[in-house]
Amino acid sequence: QVQLVEFGGGLVQVGGSLSVSCTASGSTFTINTMGWFRQAPGKQRELVATITRGGSTNYADSVKGRFTISRGNARNTVYLRMNSLKPEDTAIYYCHAQTLRSTAVYWGQGTQVTVSS
Fold it and tell me: What pLDDT score does 100 carry?
């Protein structure tokens, strides 16, 4: 089993930057992809960014050029650097991990990111 814990989040002004991180524990050897989803009140959860064990990244169109996902030296940790933040980035950000062949999916508890002027 895999457990995910997010760190970071908080309040940031429009145009500012914020970083969040996620650390996986447990059977981390099974993880192929880690990343971030977000969910704003009244909206569907949406993909933000993902990164595979091989380093391939994928970003939502809405965050391309502003957000950067990366891995720590230990591949059980993933980071998301968020630049040029907009009010529409306000959401709960959930860490996500997926096993090889998508046999299992795991979620963190979420961390709140609020962008305000």
Answer: 85
